[in-house]
Amino acid sequence: LQVFDDEGKDVTPHPLFHSDLNAVVPRQGKLLTSNVHFGATGTYGSSSTSLSNASTTESILDEMVEPGSRRDTTVSLSDVQGRQEEIAELTKEDLDRTVDIYLTETETIWILDMPSVAVSVESEDAGRIQERNRIYADICKNRPGNDRFVEKMMQTLNGAAKNKEVQCDQIIMEDKGMTVTSWDLYNSFNVLEIKPTSKAEGSGATAGRSSKPHTTKEHDQTTSVSSERGSTSSSTMISGSSVLARNHEEEQCHSEAILTSEKFQQDLFFMERILMENTFQPKLAAYRQFPVLIDPDMTSDTSGTVAAVKEAKEKEHGKEKKDKEEQKEAFIDPSILSDVNKILEEIVPPRLERLWSYTCDLTNGHSVSSMAWSKVNPDLLAVGYGAFDFKEQKKGLACCWSLKNPMWPERIFRCEHGVTALDFSMASPNLLAVGMYNGSVAIYNVRSCNDVALLDSSESSNKHTGPVWQLRWVEQDRSATGDGKTERLICISADGRITEWLVQKRLDCTDLMKIKRTESGKKKLPGEKERKSEALISQQAAGMCFDFHPKDTNFYLAGTEGGHIHKCSCSSREQFLETYRGHKGPVYKVAWSPFSTDMFLSCSADWSIILWHQDSQTPLLTFSSTTAVVHDIMWSPKSAFIFAAAKESRVEIWDLSVSILDPVISYFASPREKFTSVLFATNTDCLLVGDSKGEVGVFELQNLAAPNSNKVRLTR
Q1: pLDDT one-digit tens code per residue, 283-310
Q2: CA 133 to CA 114: how far, in whole Å?
Q3: Of 498, 539, 546, which is closest to residue 518 (Cα–Cα)?
Q4: 431, 558, 442: which is closest to 493 by C-alpha?
Q5: Which SMART domains does the UniProt entry name for this protein (predicted)?
Q6: 391-401 burial: b if 16+ Cβ within 10 Å, else e
């Protein structure tokens, strides 16, 4: 049957399968060129197969070569047979061998995602969509003539590129040379074999060596006299060189003994302290709020010292004014004082003045994850270095810095995994607890120069399986233990457990609380139906942070990855006392107020900081000044209104007595730098800020006056 179009052309469809063998041969390519003969017998494993008809060959070709494919098939039938023979030669041992197969979850690949623009009236989301459409229509209706909607334009300019050139002095080359004899080469080569003996033995030995070349010249009788003179002069040169070599060795041994002596090391330590004190004296004086000392013999001062002196004088003058104001406070109306303080703050705004940074070559490239002051020595700071992201994990560090040497840490503890949390003990000030990203906990002795941990949780069967995000030494109440206080080490981990560690011959822990997942508590819109509960992968929620009550250590707060904050009790391990829902991302830090013990702060990855009251599940205030993740917060130890927050792009100082909308101080980070943690100094008006480059900056809080006690009571 043939089909012709209107113009008479043959448009009959051709079949894809040809039963004629001659039509298939040009398509076979290299598959059956020299290995297959029709009617021959080919080996397949251990059996024989006869390829005798064209249909069988065509079926093989259709299986091996895809019709219409542009790929050049280079696999021959002999190759296929060879692979099948290799598979058939498997032994029993190969079949019984255990093979490990790892199944990993791949990323979801969306082939096509076209969200619909129309929703059925009978669907579950119909009510919610209608409510959104109504709200949008109201907004569009109220927009014309409204002052809340303003159209603005802006234009940014790119900085012009700069070309920089560097020029150095020309390197001057010099040619130098000297003339030596064969005897000098021979004696210099054998100088190392000379043993340190007495001068007489040394001269005899060198004379014996010089006689060796002399005997070689005795065969020539015409030069016998000159050879005797040569032996005498060479022996003198050798004896002199041996004495110099022996003296050099003695001096080298003596210098090594001096360098390795304990007294010399102690003297170097004192010299280093003196140099650091002279170098950082103006900045350390500003840190401790002391006057800057000036050498009377100095004829000229540097600009930095002069500036420090001026700042010290201004501070002293400010203190005198403050004392006079306090004396007159009893006779002046408090409202007038507040107005005066506001005027002074507007004239001289508060700011952060950078003093120095704790950094060295060892900490460069490590992110600062946590900081903690020593409970006994206020000049000793412990800093943990480790990454928060799983892809950026590497070996961590725990360093102890001192104010007496800001350029190199006093103690360095190298860890196999990134350090995520650390804290000093109160009962034993020499113990430093360190939590790591792999879930292990280690305790180091800072009095020892050895960087090996005293105790670690590697042998514990109850150790954490996720990162230890926070740990703290907590003192137990006196009511439970009598007059004496005992200390507990508490940790919270991403595996959903809050544990209490027992410090004995080895570290072991018991579960204080297993954080269970709770519902989000979202309100349903009108017309929205109840949805089915989704199956949870894990029944436990990942813990991120915790903080014990400053007065009653039986109660504590726990922040989770789901954005919830739970109030828990050490007496109850099964249920929460309260649950505060306000964040939409992981809660990175919670902190009780040291002055108003019924208030606490929380920060999250949702760019917000929330002020809570423990008796209310509704947030009191929400602070959100910029769209950046808030990594850390801390209350000021000297004021009930001031707290600091570390965001990725900047550090903020909030004073609630001045404003609840904007921070009073904002210090911005460099373009390739992110702030990760903050810590107030315990005895001075300074703030420590850690960043992602491994630096801990020390800043002085200037012109930030704490409110008086009357104002605190009035606000409460």
Answers
A1: 888 888 888 777 665 544 445 555 555 5
A2: 20
A3: 539
A4: 558
A5: WD40
A6: eeeeebbbbbb
